[in-house]
Amino acid sequence: MKFGQQLQQEIFPPWRLSYIQYDVLKSELKQRQLAHDWTDQDEQDFVELLESELDKVYDFVTAKLNEVEARISYCERTIQTFMNNPSWSSDQNWNVMDEALTEVLFDVNDLAKFTRLNYIGFQKILKKHDKWTGLNLTQGFVPQLRAKPLDKQRFDVAIVFISSLHDICRLQGKPRTGNAAAGGDQNAFERATAKYWIHPDNVTEVKSIIMLHLPVLIFNKDKRYEPSDSAISSVYFDNDDFDLYTGRLQRDEGAEAIRFRWYGPMASNSIFIERKTHHASWLDGASVKDRFRLNVEEVPRFISGELSADAYADQLRAKGTDEKTIEGNHFIAKGIQTSFNEKQLKPVLRAFYNRTAFQLPGDQRVRVSLDTDLTFIREDNLDGITRRGPREWRRPDVGIDYPFSYLEDRDILRFPYAVLETKLQTHLGQEPPEWLTKLVDSHLVHEVPRFSKYLHGACYFHRDRMPLLPWWLSEMAIDIHKPRSTNFGLTRSKSFKPLIDGQYRRAMEQEERRMSIVADKANAENKNDNNGRIFDRNDDDMVMSPSPFDDPLMSSATLSPTSRQEPMPRSSSAGNTLIGSPVHTPSLAKPPVEPWLQAPPPPVSSSSSPAPSVFMADEEQGLKKKKKKNKKAKEDMELQELGEPVQIDKGSLRLDMQDEEKKSKGMRRLLGDKGPMYIEDPNNKGSMIPIKKVKIDPKVFFSNERTLLSWLQFCALLLTVALSLLNLGQGTSRIAGGVFIGVGAVVAIYALYRFEKRAWMINNRVIGRYDDLWGPAVLCALLVGALIVNFYLRFG
C-alpha cells in the first residue's frame, strides 16, 4: 500500500488538519519537476514548505503533550484531595477519576500514533525528493529534525504517571503490600520466558493494555520518574572465537552468557555482574540467571583478578551481610572469574534499550517487560580500530543518548522493533493470566521463540566469523505489522469514545464482574452437590472468567467470599503510592454483588431474535428483601449512573402487555424517576440487569406534533362537509350534517388528548406503546356509522 493511502486510512479525524500534508508536498514536488528542471529556487521553496509542515506537526504534538501533562496533574491533585479527605472518597468519585485517567491514556496512545505516522511521512517525502531531484535533502534536513524531533518516544513518563494514579484509583487510596525494590538485589532468577517483536506502530498500545492489568514497576519511588530511569545498558563478553555465542546458539549444556549491566545514566555507581546459564548442573538442569553487584570502580579490578571472589566475600562480611547472601555471591563471582580466566573473555558488544517493566511489587511470579529503542554498539577491537583502552571494559564515548547519531554506521545497529518479554515462574505453578494469553495471541505482537539480543547483535557485526546464524534472521525480511482481525486492543467508537476490546470500559468491567460472580456461584453449587469435593484446575465443571481488571495472579474461581470481602494486608503508606504502586482491582476488596444489581452487557441492538421483556423493579420490595445489603446496593446504583448509554433501536425493547397486567402498580416506574431501570437477563432466567436511560431526540416531539396536525386536517375536512350539509341542505341533509359535526368534534378532542398524553410520556420517559391502538379503529367505525345513518335517512 502506498503511504498516501495508508496515511488517509490511519488519520484520526479530530486531528485531520494537523497531519503532514503529504499529498500536497508530493504534488508540489511532481508539478515543479514536470514544469521545468529543478532549480535552486524550487529547492528553497520546497524546504520552506517542509519546515512549515514540521513546525505545524511539532507544535501540535507539544501542545497536546502539555495538555496531557496538565490533565494528569489535575487528576493527581484531585486524587490527593480524596486521600486527604475521606468524606470525599466515595466509589463514584474514584471511578470518575479512573475513567478520566483512561481517557488520558487513550489520548496518549492516539498522540503516539500521530507522532509516528508524521515522522514516517517526513522520511518518505525526503526520500522521494532525493530520488526525483538527485539532491541529498535527507541529510541536509537532519538539523531541523533534531531541533524538533518526532522520532523519540516522549510519552513514557506520561504512561508511568497514569499507571501510578490508575492503581491508586483501583485501590481507592489504600496502600498495598509489597516493595517495588524487592528482588532488586536477588542473585538468582528461575523463570520461563517468551519473547515477541512489536511493530513501532503498536508499542504505545501494547504498553497501555499491559498497564490496565499490571502496574509499571518503579524501583526508586523516592525520586520523581525521569526518562533516563528506563535506560538499560549491557556489555556482553566473549572471546575471539565466540565460544559463548556458539554455545548459546546451539543451547549446549551449561552454555553461558556473561554481561555487565547498569541502569540509568553512565554515572550510575552500581554495576550488576550477570551470568545466564542454560541447564545449570548445580540446579538439576534448570536454566538460571544469577548476578551480584559491584561498584563501578571495582569492575576493572574484578576483571583482572585483583578483586578475587574471596576478597569480595570479605567485603560483604565486613558490611554485615548475612552469610547466605555472601555464599551465593561468592559462588557466582568465583564461577564468572573462572570463565574469564579459562575462556579469555573480552568486551564484544553493548546492547542499549529503554525498558518499561510491569510487575506487582515484591512478586516475581508474573513479570512483563517491553524494551524499546534497542540498539547494538560494537565494543571490540577485532577490526583493528581502537574503541576503548586496554584497562577499560566499556567505551567512554557512548552514553544513553539514543539514537546515537554521532556513531559511525559500522559501529551501530538500530533494531527496528520493540521486544516484549514475558517471564513466569512456572516452577511455582504460575500459569499465564487470561489477559496475557489474549495479548500474545493478538495482531499486536509477533512471537520469536528464543530470541537473544546478544546473538542478534554479535552475528550482525561479526557474521564472517560465525559458522552458525540465528534462525530469526529470515523473520527480519517479513512485515510483522498484522491487520486488525478482532476488536482486541484500544479503539474508538464512531463518536470517538474509548473502547477496550470493542466495548466501553465500564460495560466490559461490569460484565466481567458479573460473570465472575456467576462462576463463584456455580462453583459453590458444585461443591454442595458433590459433598464438599474440591475441583481440580482441569475439571470441566469449573467455570472461570477472570476479569481483565482483576489481580493478574488470581482468578475469580480461586477466590473465596472471604477474600473478596477483606482487602489484602498492606504495609506501605498511601502517600508513597502516588508515583509507582501497582494495579489492584476494587472488586476484590468488595463483597459479592447480587446478579440483579449488575451493570448491563454491551449496548443492545436490534436483531432477529426475540427482544427481552422490560419492566420496572419494585424498589420497596427489593429493599425489603435486601435489607442487609441496602448500603451496597445504593453504591452500585450510583456506579451504574456512570455507565455508557445503551443505544435502543426500534423494536429492541418492548413492554410485554400480558405481563404488565399481572404486575402491580408498584412494579411500574417512570424512566425519569431516580434509580435504575431493569431488563430481564436472557442468559439467566429470573435475574435482572439495569440499563441506562437514553437521551430524548428533539425530533420525537416534532413527530408527535405532526401526528396531531394530520388528525386535525381530517377533522377540518369532515367539519367542512358537515357545515355544507347544514347550511345548504334540508331535512335529512341537516341531520347527516349534525352527525358529522359530532364525529369531527369527538375526533378533534381525542386527537388533542392523545397529543398531550404522548408529550407527557415522552417527557417522563414512560416505557409503553406510543402508537394509537384503538383510535383509528373507532374513527373508522364512527365514519361508517355516519354514512349508514345518512343513507338510511335519504333512502330509507
TrEMBL record:
Name of the top EC class for this enzyme: transferase
Major subcellular site: membrane
Stretches that traverse the bilayer: 708-728, 735-753, 773-793
SPX domain sequence ranges: 1-143
Alphabetically ordered keywords of this record: Membrane, Transferase, Transmembrane, Transmembrane helix, Vacuole
Top-level taxon of the source organism: Eukaryota
A biological-process GO annotation: polyphosphate biosynthetic process
Gene Ontology terms for molecular function: polyphosphate kinase activity
Residue spans of biased composition, Pro residues class: 592-604
A Pfam match: VTC
Record's bilayer topology term: Multi-pass membrane protein
EC number(s) given by UniProt: 2.7.4.1
Reactions mediated catalytically: [phosphate](n) + ATP = [phosphate](n+1) + ADP
Cross-referenced InterPro entries: DUF202, SPX_dom, VTC_Complex_Subunit, VTC_domain, VTC_sf
Polar residues biased stretches: 555-579
Subcellular location per the Swiss-Prot or TrEMBL entry: Vacuole membrane
Family affiliation: Belongs to the VTC4 family.
Record protein name field: Vacuolar transporter chaperone complex subunit 4
Source organism: Apophysomyces ossiformis
Organismal lineage: Eukaryota, Fungi, Fungi incertae sedis, Mucoromycota, Mucoromycotina
Gene name per UniProt: VTC4_6
